Amino acid sequence: MLALPSQTTSLILASLGYLRSHFPGQAIEVRIPPIGAVQCFSGVRHTRGTPPNVFQTDAQTWLKLIRGTKSFDELAPLIDYSGSEIYRLIEQLPLNEDFFKSFTEQ
Question: Cβ distance 62 to 30 under 8 Å?
């Protein structure tokens, strides 16, 4: 496994935190291993085992999605996802300019 630059890791963690704070809940679990995971979006609460709505991908694919350099449809083969609520996450990608502005101001 290649080590990721600290700024990349920070950006991914910040994006996961953004999802958690702007879309609170436990309906969807977003996983970017080995960096982090977050539960977000309101709906059916998940407490044990594998959640019904899971979105998992590698760091580089996630960065392309949140920046909008590639679409979900283009990157779907690189993403493991399941559940009927995943569309709610996909609708929020790429993340808005306010997120990136706040990240660069840190």
Answer: no
Domains of the chain as residue ranges with CATH: 24-98 (3.30.1050.40)
Give buried/exposed letters for 51-62 (b at 16+ CB in 10 A, else e): bbbbbbbebebb
- 6-25 pLDDT, tens digit per residue, is 889 999 999 999 999 999 99
Task: Please say whether the beta carbons of 42 and 70 come within 8 A.
Answer: no
Which residues, other chains included, contact 91 with Cβ-Cβ below 8 Å and sequence gap of 6+? none
Instruction: Decide: pTM greater than 0.70.
Output: yes
Distance of CA 94 to the CA centre of its chain: 10
Name the token pair of 74.
């283009």
Integer Cα distance of 74 and 13 in angstroms? 23
Task: State the Cα–Cα distance between residues 100 and 11, nearest whole angstrom.
Answer: 9
